[in-house]
Amino acid sequence: MISEAPAIPGELIARLRTAHRVAVLTGAGISAESGVPTFREAQTGLWARYNPEELATSEAFQRNPRLVWEWYAWRQERVRQAEPNPGHDALTAMERQIAKFTLITQNVDGLHRRAGSHQVLELHGNLFRAKCFTEDRTVEGWPESDDLPPRCPHCGGLLRPNVVWFGEMLPANTLRAAEQAAVNAEVFFSIGTSSLVYPAADLPIAGLRAGAMVVEINPQPTPLSPYVTFSLNGAAGVILPALVAQTWDVER
Ligand code: OAD
After folding, report:
1. 201-235 tens-digit pLDDT
2. Model pTM above 0.85
3. I need a surface site. Which of 38, 64, 68, 224 has the fewest CB within 10 A?
4. What is the tens place of the pLDDT at every residue in 100-144?
5. Which one of 88, 112, 118, 124 is the catalytic residue?
6. Count of other CB atoms within 10 angstroms of residue 191
7. Interaxial angle between packed helices 10-18 and 236-248, expressed in degrees from 0 to 180 and rounded to the nearest 10
8. Are residues 195 and 244 in the same domain?
9. Does the annotation mark 154 as catalytic?
10. 208 Cα to the center of ligand 1, angstroms
């Protein structure tokens, strides 16, 4: 992992200082430094032999609902043990500096809110919520049972995590708000995402087309890299605090 922040371009600092509208898209990479495994890098332990894309589908749930429920329970546990890192914290600091700041995340771990960010659009749902697989209704609580997954308190159907699986639509209002933020942004950040999963991967492109300065923060190149205004190669938890400190001269 790169531990020293690369120089932050002066042009980016100048643009941010006067910007009224900034949008940020994050992916699993921003939580990597909190110890939450990303999707396309190796998983550890019990689940190393499972491909997340094969577990995150409604077909997988229909085939083996208990396996899928337990995989999400394991992920919940990892996130409960994790803390937001300096990358998450820097984004909360950025939110305080920008009049219209929109944080769009593909992550289901809730770490942005735990760090104190307020304007968060969760494109792929949230690991800690559940809904009924049969009726697609969000549920707040359910009777405890050894038999997993638990049952819907309304219809007795199986409960599933309230996340977006492959082949499913994103929540329409959330996606619309994210698209609007992207086309209105003066600066758009794409942070810690492989830019492989759509429609999220379209958002920085929409921002670029609408005239935003697009900045990628990632230790690795992605399919988005050739198009961005600036590529900052390194860890979000190193680059973002440096960027915020150099731009606004604030204590975080
Ligand atoms: P990926 O696992 O595809 O990509 C993680 C990205 O984070 C990679 O490009 C890494 O290089 C980068 N990365 C790793 N460590 C980093 C660090 N410290 N700082 C910055 N970047 C770092 O995760 P996502 O792009 O989030 O969808 O994946 C997108 C979607 O695919 C997920 O939301 C999930 C997944 O399958 C669903 O479950 C629907």
Report:
1. 999 999 999 999 999 999 999 999 999 999 999 99
2. yes
3. 64
4. 999 999 999 999 999 999 989 999 999 999 999 999 999 988 888
5. 124
6. 23
7. 60
8. yes
9. no
10. 21
